[in-house]
Amino acid sequence: MGYPRIPQRFTVEILSSIQYGPSHKIAGSVVTYRTFNNQLRWYADFRLNSYDAKKNKYYASFKGITLNEDIALKLYEELLKLPEEMPILNDGEVRNLGRFKKYANTSVNLSLVNYDNTTKIDIREWTDSEINGYKGPTKKGVRFEYSMREFLIGGLILMINRMKDIHIEYAAKPGLDKNKVI
Predict the structure, then answer these.
(1) What's the CA gap between 69 and 71, in Å, rounded?
(2) For helices 149-172 and 69-80, what crossing angle results, to 10°?
(3) What is the pTM of this model?
(4) Alpha-carbon distance 138 to 22, whole Å?
(5) CA-to-CA distance for 177 and 81, rounded, in angstroms?
(6) In this structure, how many other beta carbons lie within 10 angstroms of the beta carbon of residue 64?
(7) How many whole angstroms from its chain centre is CA 153?
(8) How far apart are CA 172 and CA 26, in angstroms?
(9) Would you list the DSSP string of 153-167?
(10) Which regions in the chain score pLDDT beneath 70?
């Protein structure tokens, strides 16, 4: 058994980014690709990008989370409910704001966490795996300063609108099987 094949015609369209510390940026983008059975898929993606000083360039890391259009919309709606002023949480406190089903045993969890004595917004995949028995958070996710709430909301608006545009563009193309547009 070999490695899984990477989908063909893979594109990443960065729609927003913000500096996150001296050598990192968080980028909000829409990832589009055509699968091997010719289905079109697109996702909203928040990814931590690291800076390489030698090449004077940012590179995407594996740290981040990918969301389908429905989950991106639900996150947007929940983030709008947050107050502008940062809520004060006790040391180690976690306040769950919502959990949205992604796959059969995986969901995306939106929460506020107290980390380094600061309230942060955490968007993370959670698993209820029957295979290995683990239930809880995974490494797939991002944690934002609460002050970046407006960036998150704005980035999600851009990504949701772009995903809707892509759906309309591809669904209108002649000769494309509309049943294969996801």
Answers:
(1) 6
(2) 150
(3) 0.79
(4) 26
(5) 39
(6) 19
(7) 12
(8) 33
(9) HHHHHHHHHHHHHHH
(10) 1-10, 34-38, 171-182
